[in-house]
Design a protein that fits this description.
The protein is α+β, with helices and mostly antiparallel strands and about 240 residues long. About 45% of the residues lie in helices and about 15% in strands. The chain contains 12 helices and 8 strands. It starts with a helix and ends with a strand.
């Protein structure tokens, strides 16, 4: 029931038949309006004029439905069902295009370390002035051991990290590149190139290569991308530089 409309008609001393005659509709239509149906805009305007009220006073739900939030910032550029499904040109392009900041946070990230094209892109970005920070898991740490156990691969997780470090050794000699080891529980691997981020969420018992990847773009402080960047900085602050 639209009690607001019913009271407004009573205050204006208007019966259903009066409203029907003045608006130009069937009395049954007015009855349906009083029962809760919302009239068309042209009818609402005439009814409001008849009773001397604003439309929002008679149908407040319309005022609520017309309130529109600012259009959302597009932060998710792409999604991939698995890390291995991310095309190699995507990795190559984001690292090559980085001008200020590159960040890699993973346990091993061996798939990047074994790619000479990616290593060259990282080195070239560093030589062009970008800050390149690589965070790998401490192969002797408790978190790497736990991750290896969770994935059912045991000591091979630590072995992959040591292998990655061998590949990254030459890169660490490039000015602007710093490599640290962390012993933290990773809920996501994070790959950053300026405001572009590839986020690889970890799933219990699933290798990171089989977990999904989100391609995000940071739009402003406090957005989704910034949340992951804050996580990166926290791990970086507690990590230890390799010797």
């Amino acid at each position: 029931m639209n009690d607001l409309l019913r009271r407004a008609l009573a205050d204006a001393h208007l019966a259903e038949a009066d409203v029907a005659a003045r608006v130009g509709v069937d009395p049954k239509t007015v009855h349906r309006w009083l029962a809760g149906r919302v009239p068309y805009a042209r009818h609402r305007d005439r009814i409001a004029a008849l009773v001397g009220r604003d439309e929002a006073d008679l149908w407040p739900q319309l005022a609520v439905s017309t309130v529109r939030a600012d259009p959302p910032v597009i932060e998710v550029l792409a999604t991939y069902p698995h890390r291995w499904a991310v095309p190699r040109p995507v990795w190559q392009q984001i690292f090559q295009n980085a001008r200020d900041e590159i960040g890699i946070l993973a346990y091993a990230g061996l798939f990047l370390a074994e790619d000479m094209g990616i290593l060259r892109a990282l080195a070239e970005s560093a030589r062009s002035g970008a800050r390149v920070r690589i965070l790998l898991g401490d192969p002797d740490g408790t978190c790497v051991a736990a991750r290896g156990s969770d994935e059912g691969v045991g000591e091979s997780m630590a072995a992959k990290i040591r292998n990655a470090l061998v590949h990254y050794r030459a890169l660490s000699e490039v000015d602007g590149v710093e490599i640290r080891l962390h012993d933290t529980v990773l809920y996501n691997s994070i790959y950053r190139a300026d405001d572009d981020l590839l986020i690889n969420p970890h799933a219990y018992g699933i290798a990171a290569s089989h977990a999904p990847v989100l391609h995000l773009r940071r739009a402003a402080d406090g957005d989704m991308g910034s949340t992951y960047l804050e996580s990166f900085e926290r791990v970086w602050a507690s990590a230890v530089s390799i010797e």
